[in-house]
Amino acid sequence: MAETRGTSGPDSARRSERSRRAIYDAALTLVGEVGYGRTTIEGIAARAGVGKQTIYRWWPSKGAVLLEAFLDLGDRAARAAGGGEAAYEIPDTGDLEADLKTVLRATVDEMNDPVYEAPSRALAAEGIADAELGAEFTRKLLEPSLRLYARRLGAAREAGAVRREIDLDVALELLVGPLAHRWLLRTLPLTHEYADAVVEYALYGLAPRP
Amino acid sequence: MAETRGTSGPDSARRSERSRRAIYDAALTLVGEVGYGRTTIEGIAARAGVGKQTIYRWWPSKGAVLLEAFLDLGDRAARAAGGGEAAYEIPDTGDLEADLKTVLRATVDEMNDPVYEAPSRALAAEGIADAELGAEFTRKLLEPSLRLYARRLGAAREAGAVRREIDLDVALELLVGPLAHRWLLRTLPLTHEYADAVVEYALYGLAPRP
Amino acid sequence: MAETRGTSGPDSARRSERSRRAIYDAALTLVGEVGYGRTTIEGIAARAGVGKQTIYRWWPSKGAVLLEAFLDLGDRAARAAGGGEAAYEIPDTGDLEADLKTVLRATVDEMNDPVYEAPSRALAAEGIADAELGAEFTRKLLEPSLRLYARRLGAAREAGAVRREIDLDVALELLVGPLAHRWLLRTLPLTHEYADAVVEYALYGLAPRP
Amino acid sequence: MAETRGTSGPDSARRSERSRRAIYDAALTLVGEVGYGRTTIEGIAARAGVGKQTIYRWWPSKGAVLLEAFLDLGDRAARAAGGGEAAYEIPDTGDLEADLKTVLRATVDEMNDPVYEAPSRALAAEGIADAELGAEFTRKLLEPSLRLYARRLGAAREAGAVRREIDLDVALELLVGPLAHRWLLRTLPLTHEYADAVVEYALYGLAPRP
DNA sequence: TCGTAAACGAGACGGTACGTCGCGTCTTTAT
DNA sequence: ATAAAGACGCGACGTACCGTCTCGTTTACGA
User: Which CATH number fits domain C16-82: 1.10.10.1100, 3.40.190.80, 1.10.357.10, 2.60.40.10?
Assistant: First the structure.
């Protein structure tokens, strides 16, 4: 009992799992093949062998479908990799600079991976224009990652590698902001060297003054 | 030298200046009124009192129209303000930190100005998704501004306020990257305090080691 | 037997009868109001309160729409008039000349009726230029009428009022050809007297030689 | 003096003959190649190497261009054939039936000639729909031919081969109406046998009663 | 012989309609 | 009740031509 009755939304208990999967697959495939702009809901439905209404019943927009498909993709990848639970965590070897370089280099690789590039650029673009979707994008995809940085930097602050008065939210953006800038705006190539330089410059700015 | 001969495009010498202006105005107005997504080429044409073909003849896409309209807006503003020439320059009072705070605070204000927000977010989003347009966006709008930072930082490096080995392209992204990040992804409010903090943290990272 | 299977055209079982009717009405009204040339598919759709695609889904051209609308008009008129079935038949009073004069005079009246004139001229013109449409026009509108003449002339031949060796297809065109000629090419006024003269001259040519 | 001054139309004395010819040629060629419906004024102008305005200056419509082009074609053909003047005349060997069969068989051949078919069908269709153009079509192309029939039939009436009271305008339509009918409406093949039958049936109807 | 006014080629322009695509809704039929 | 299928009203797309309107450039005439 005790469902949110009265809202008269569709009954998610009776939802077809096979359709959901087919829609995720079709959406990601199409975005990869023809790009986000030329991906259509009709196209996704046709490719998934699904009625249009089945998409409209469960998602409010094309962007929302893709966002969920993308999240699902990440989940599956994590489940496959992590075996189970802990999924992602920034390593803590005690050497903050080395740890951040490792992570940011991995981030650079992911950003340059053509498989992820098309859908994530599309989602970012859509999120920039559409505040609603952008909030969901940020909440579900971005913030979990950013919190990992905050945690690692917090640990470093405890350990004395970062000044006490540093605002961690600003600090982490000092690290990821430059990378995002280069990726989104394609100003210059996004390389490991760039990631290293960002870490070095930024960390020195955050370190305790002698 | 040679004109782009043989491409046999339309004859820009015979182009109607009045139509161009009307299209810029209509485009900006509509984006302001109904947003970029609901702005259509048909709508721009109608509002401008212009045939659709006159738009398609001179621009390849809605985004391109808006980009030019936006550039033109900037030009006109600059011409009105600067009286003539020098236009934009980052001040150099000798105090790098103060100068950068001034500029980044102004940038924050501009990013928060609802008049500029709609079209520039739309352009950024479009440029992220469409590499072609993105390149033009970067080249015409972004790079000129970024070069000003590079120049100011170069002067600071000469003056000994920045380490010799610092890569200026990385340094400037350490400053603007975090701002762009917050603006584009709406993670947290974009305030003067944030700009100040970014400048402080970053500059300390760039300063000569004692 | 077999339906046209595999062609995967639209499913006519799900066709909206109300749209069909509205389109017929709009088409006929518009042709009456502004003429065939200035009647557009867009106009028909707007007037009928229907999407353009609903027209393009079911008809290949403006002419085809009007032809069906016209046929439907005839059907409805026939159904209203005839009460049911027998509809049109050339009378057979035994006096061939009188019977033909009656029918041809009625035809003249119809041709001169401004209500029918606009659409039927338009259809004739379209059919002359477009062989495909012309065939349909002929098959659905013209031939049924012409067969009535053939039947009546056949009866007359049995009765000895027409020579045995006369080719009925030629004979009937001797009657209707001149009327059509005058109507289509507007050489001279199309009157009852003209119809009578045609019948007299032609019948004398077909009658048994003394 | 005494020009039609004040009408301020273009000065036909300064008209470019080479353009006129090029336009005729282009028009006829295009109608032959793509049909009348897909022939456009822009297309004619481009093909003729002529500005659009040069067409609009001298003709009111596409149909008018084609009509003149067609008349000119006839004129040139006649001039080439007739050597000079008399051009067309229905022969008068004293045998009306034979003479008419000769002429109508030639007419049948012309109607079946694919070179003439496209433009003349187009003109006929246009003339049927557009009364203005139709009148010009009839006056310039049709009536001259029909008058030849009237003359020949008049001679026959003088010679006693046609009844005195016969109306020649009706009589000639008894001959050409059936042919036009078959040609325009494509009811049945248009053959020499058909022409012969029409002549026989019709003439018997016109002949003096024994 | 030369100026000058026209006709001319070229094609940009404001429009209208085209035929197509995709949207989001709705209806029908079959699980 | 959900789902596949797809017709529907609608709005915008990008294109094709329309007929009008400049633009220089011939070109033929009349001074």
Answer: 1.10.357.10
